[in-house]
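<backbone_tokenisation>
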Amino acid sequence: MQLRYSFRLYPNGPQCSALARAFGCARVAFNDALRARETARAAGLPFVTSAELSKRLTASKETPRRAWLGEVSSVVLQQSLRDLDTAYKNFFASLKGKRSKMGPPRFKSRKDTRQAIRFTANARWKIAPGGGLWLPKIGDVRVRWSRTLPSVPSTVTVVKDGAGRYFASFIVETDPAADLVRMPDTDHVTGIDLGLTHFAILSDGTKIDSPRFLRRAEKRLKKKQKSLSRKAKGSKNREKARAEVARAHATVADARREFHHQLSTKVIRENQAVAVEDLAVKGLARTRMAKSIHDAGWSQFVTMLEYKAVRYGRTFLRIGRFEPTSQVCSACGVKDGPKPLNVRAWACGACGAVLDRDINAAVNIAKAAGLAVSACRAQVRPVLAPAQREEAGTHRDGQATVVGISGLEAGERKSTKGQCTWPTPPHPASAPSSA
């Protein structure tokens, strides 16, 4: 299974300048290739191939106008052309309906908040004996190793985020057998009902409070945003204020991601099968509760559950969003109709059981998960496929879907998807992987 491990980089002054130069050259190579293809399309000429773009890039280094492209590693420029090919493939696939709708590739700007370059094995990068990361034409960059790499990485991507922080992202292969040993054996099945007052309610009655990281940081963010709005556009002070705002938002995002990682790992460790409701997050994010919805980060949490379930041999299920989990009594199974959101507890008219709205929904989700697991009678096996970054689709038939994703430990998704629709037997769908 391929995973991505990210570590913080601390380049010095000359190395920051060399990285900025590499970011700029990769951006120019990408934009030149995109412009060549768009010009050919406008003129009615055939699609410019990747080989032709590579030849033009090599020839442009010999011209005075683009001679400075030779100051960076050629691997960085070639990987930029591959990124353009990937963007076009995704766009064409969306036109054919093979993936979610997305637009054509767009030109990159030097003002983009996130910049990245990628080094493959051909670049001969290496981890120095002293613990640093040696990159061609950049030097030995200091790295803060927070954990040990499970195997020799195949590629490394250097990323600079909007807060001015540098990261090294490695793609490594892990041993599935070793991952399965890390988790204890269990036969427990749990259902999770996601909410705002309580972030998650488990079917055993456990309620996990919502941390509300953004709400708690609003006062500090407001102060920094006000300071940014008062700076003159184009000034150095405005750029400093913008970096302060970006760092404040990055702190909130890091805290939320850490909370999701810890909770998802705990849930996967304690349960053999995990089920959640397929929420329409995109639709809910367009309501007056949008800030609270984004603050909770449901999609990121569910994605972590998906890929960790496959990595550690667990079963993950999505229950259709149209299932009446809040309308059915978990004790007797009688459906007594919808209830307004202000009704948090009620007594069942058939059996008289006093039901908590959230716990009742979680129990019903767990019951549906148990039926799906018994129907499939097998765990979903991971198969390599590129991650889908959009929200999950709507299942109007109200059925549960078993989904497996082999993801990235540091949060970026490169996932596997195998599906088994309840109550048919499992049938994984494979697709080629992309590094």
Remarks:
- Residues 236-270 form the longest helix (35 residues).
- The longest strand covers residues 2-10.
- Residues 375-435 have pLDDT under 50 and may be disordered.
- The chain is about 40% helix and 15% strand.
